[in-house]
Design goal:
- By secondary structure, the chain is α+β, with helices and mostly antiparallel strands.
- The chain has eleven helices and 24 strands.
- The N and C termini lie far apart (about 85 Å).
- Pfam families: Transglut_core.
C-alpha cells in the first residue's frame, strides 16, 4: 500500500512539473504575441494588417515622424489602409493601453515578389513567365485556395502536381518534351472553382504585364458582405447593422448620446461626434455611475426644460470650467476620469461637454486638431448654425469675466494653425455641409436676424446665477 501511494505521489509531482514548465512556455509565447504585424511588400500591400491581444487599444502607425494612423480600436485584428509604400520604407506599428506604450513592431517594406506584380496580383493562381524549353515551372496560389498543375508537353506527355499551396517550383519531368501549356485548376476546399490552360505566349513577361498568366474567375458563391467594418460614420454603420441578417441587434443607439453593443466588456459608448472611432466606451457599472453623475450636474446647475439652449449649454460649460482643473501631467481625456478625478486636459473637457450637451438634447461635437495643432474644442448647434465653444479657454479664465469669452463664437475664433491640422474626418464634404459654422457669434447672429429671447450678451451670461 505504501509503495502504491509513493508511486502516486511521484507521478503527481512529475505531472505538476510538466504542467508548470508547459504553462510557463505558454505564457512566454502569449507574451511574445502582444502584437503581430503581417509583412508589407512594396507596391503591393495597401493595408497594414495584424493582430493585438487586447480588446481595446490605441493603434498608432508611423513612417518615420509621419503619423499614418492614430485611432482607438475595439477588435483584436486590424486592417488599416495606408496606401502602397516603397521598398526599404520602415513602418512602425505601436499599441497603447491607457495612454502607455504596450507593444511596438517595426516592419521594413520588402521587395515585391513576382506574383505580387501588376499582371499577376489580381489572379487567384498564377504561373510565372516561362519559355517552351524551360525545365522548371514556378506557380503560386493565394491563401485559402488549393492548386493542381498539369504540364503538357509537345510530345503529348503529361506531368501532374496536386494540392499546391502558396508558391512552388516544379522540375519538369524528363519524359515531358518542350512545354506546350501549363493547366492550372483551382479548388476551394474540395470544390473545383475553375481551370485555365496557359501557353508560353500567355505568360511571356517577367513582370506579368500583358500576360494571361493564371486563374482569376472564382465561381464560388460567397456570403454577402452586408456590413462595412471600416465605416466610421455612426448612423451609417448602425444602419448597416440593422439591415444585416447576421448582425442585426448587436449594436444600436439607446438614445441620442449612447450606443450599446453586444460584447464581453465596454458595452456602453458615449457619443462625442458623428464618428464611431471617437465613441467613449465603458462597462455597465461605469456607465451607470456616469449617468448618475451627469444627472447630478444637471440638477446642481439648475437646468430646466423651459430654458433656451444657449443658457443650458453655458451652465454646463461653466460647471466644467469651474469644477474641473486643467492638469497637463495626467493627460486624462475621457469622461470617467474627467468627472470623477476632477482634472483633465482639452480632450477631456471637450468630450465631456459634448456628451453633457447631448444629454440635455443639444447637438454638440467633440472636434480634434491633431498632430501639430494638438488641441480639442467643441462645435455646438444653436439655431441654423454651429458655434465654437472652448472649455479649456473658459477654465483658464474661470475666475473672471473671461470665462464667457470662449462660448458660442464664430469661425474666426479658431486659430489658423488649428484649422490647418483638423483631423481629416472634419474636412469631409459631408461634415462641412451638415455643420455650417457661423462667421459671427451667436448673439450677433440673433441681433442681425432680429431673433429675440434666444441669446445673451457676455455680461448677461456672466451674471447668470449659479
Amino acid at each position: 500500500m505504501k509503495k502504491t501511494v509513493k508511486k502516486l505521489m511521484v507521478t503527481l509531482a512529475l505531472a505538476l512539473m510538466v504542467t508548470t514548465f508547459c504553462g510557463s512556455g505558454v505564457q512566454a509565447k502569449q507574451k511574445s504575441q502582444k502584437l503581430k504585424v503581417d509583412n508589407i511588400y512594396a507596391d503591393y500591400n495597401k493595408y497594414v494588417k495584424g493582430r493585438c491581444n487586447l480588446k481595446k487599444y490605441r493603434l498608432v502607425i508611423k513612417q518615420g515622424s509621419k503619423v499614418l494612423h492614430n485611432k482607438t480600436h475595439y477588435r483584436k485584428s486590424f486592417s488599416v489602409k495606408i496606401g502602397t509604400r516603397n521598398q526599404g520604407d520602415k513602418i512602425t506599428v505601436k499599441i497603447k493601453k491607457s495612454r502607455k506604450k504596450y507593444a511596438s513592431v517595426t516592419k521594413q517594406v520588402k521587395r515585391t515578389l513576382w506574383w505580387q506584380k501588376d499582371g499577376y496580383k489580381s489572379e487567384k493562381a498564377v504561373v510565372k513567365a516561362y519559355k517552351t524549353n524551360d525545365r522548371k515551372i514556378t506557380v503560386h496560389c493565394k491563401a485559402g485556395y488549393r492548386l493542381n498543375v498539369d504540364i503538357t508537353g509537345n510530345n503529348g506527355k503529361n506531368q501532374k502536381e496536386n494540392n499546391i499551396q502558396k508558391t512552388k517550383t516544379i522540375n519538369v519531368a524528363s519524359g515531358v518534351d518542350s512545354i506546350k501549356k501549363v493547366t492550372l485548376t483551382l479548388y476551394n476546399n474540395r470544390k473545383k472553382i475553375s481551370s485555365n490552360g496557359i501557353t508560353p505566349d500567355d505568360a511571356q513577361s517577367d513582370n506579368g504585364k500583358g500576360n494571361k498568366p493564371g486563374v482569376k474567375k472564382d465561381n464560388t458563391k460567397k456570403p454577402t458582405q452586408d456590413v462595412d467594418w471600416r465605416e466610421d460614420n455612426i448612423d451609417r454603420f448602425l444602419g448597416q447593422i440593422e439591415k444585416s441578417d447576421t448582425y442585426r441587434g448587436t449594436a444600436y443607439k439607446l438614445n441620442d448620446y449612447t450606443i450599446y453593443r453586444e460584447c464581453d466588456s465596454y458595452q456602453y459608448g458615449f457619443i462625442t461626434s458623428p464618428y464611431w472611432s471617437l465613441v467613449d466606451w465603458y462597462n455597465e457599472r461605469e456607465y451607470k455611475e456616469l449617468l448618475a453623475e451627469m444627472q447630478r450636474i444637471v440638477e446642481v446647475t439648475h437646468i430646466k426644460d423651459d430654458m433656451i439652449d444657449e443658457e443650458k449649454a453655458y451652465r454646463l460649460g461653466r460647471y466644467l470650467a469651474k469644477n474641473i482643473d486643467y492638469y497637463l501631467p495626467g493627460h486624462e481625456q475621457h469622461l470617467y476620469g474627467t468627472l470623477f478625478n476632477k482634472k483633465t486636459v482639452c480632450g477631456g473637457y471637450s468630450k465631456t461637454y459634448a456628451v453633457l450637451c447631448r444629454y440635455v438634447g443639444i447637438e454638440c461635437d467633440y472636434v480634434l486638431a491633431d498632430k501639430i495643432g494638438n488641441h480639442a474644442w467643441n462645435l455646438i448647434k444653436l439655431g441654423d448654425y454651429w458655434y465654437v465653444v472652448d472649455i479649456t479657454d473658459a477654465a483658464v479664465g474661470r475666475n473672471g469675466k473671461g470665462i464667457t469669452y470662449s462660448f458660442f463664437m464664430g469661425y474666426d475664433y479658431i486659430d489658423d494653425s488649428l484649422i490647418n491640422h483638423l483631423d481629416k474626418d472634419y474636412w469631409t464634404d459631408e461634415y462641412i455641409s451638415t455643420h455650417p459654422i457661423d462667421t459671427i457669434n451667436h448673439y450677433q447672429r440673433c441681433k442681425k436676424e432680429g431673433i429675440t429671447g434666444q441669446s445673451f450678451t457676455d455680461d448677461e451670461l456672466y451674471n447668470l446665477p449659479e
